[in-house]
Design goal:
By secondary structure, this protein is of the alpha+beta class. It has 2 helices and 2 strands. Strands 1-2 form a two-stranded antiparallel ribbon.
């Protein structure tokens, strides 16, 4: 595969690289008095193509009779 054809998989929730199975944390730095970096949770659950396919596969196992009430 050439570099032109390369397309990275990204999360549809936050737009960053995929983070399947774990939340996405980002480092934040305040450039005031205290220069200690801290981390914030940017995305709770990954919504990339891989995760979407796994979700579709798991819902196929549920009988339609159970889904009628939803």
């Amino acid at each position: 595969m050439s570099q032109v054809e390369y397309k990275p998989i990204s999360c549809k929730n936050c737009g960053h690289a995929q983070h399947c199975g774990s939340p996405r944390y980002m480092e934040v730095r305040d450039y005031g008095v205290d220069c200690e970096p801290y981390y914030i949770k940017a995305c709770e659950m990954c919504q990339c193509i891989t995760c979407s396919e796994k979700l579709e596969m798991s819902t196929k196992d549920i009988p339609i009779s159970m889904l009628n009430g939803l």
